[in-house]
Specification:
Blueprint lengths: L2 E5 L9 H5 L4 E4 L2 E4 L3 E2 L3 H9 L5 E4 L4 E3 L3
Amino acid sequence: MTWKVEVDEHTCIGSGMCASLMPELFALDGPVAHALSDTVAPDETALDAADSCPAMAITISDGTEVVGPRP
C-alpha cells in the first residue's frame, strides 16, 4: 500500500516545514515546496509534515480517503 502525496502550489507559502521534517519527500523549489515523489509508503512523518504545514497545502490520501492532514 502507498499513499498519494500532493502539494497545492497555489496554496503553499514556502515555509519549509515539510522539507525540514521529511527532506527525502519534500523540497523547496523557489518560493514553494513540492513533493519529490507522488507516492510514499505509509509513514507517520509524512502525516506530521502535512499536519505542520501552516498553509494546509499538503494532502495525503490512501487512494479512497484523505489521511493527512489530520483534524
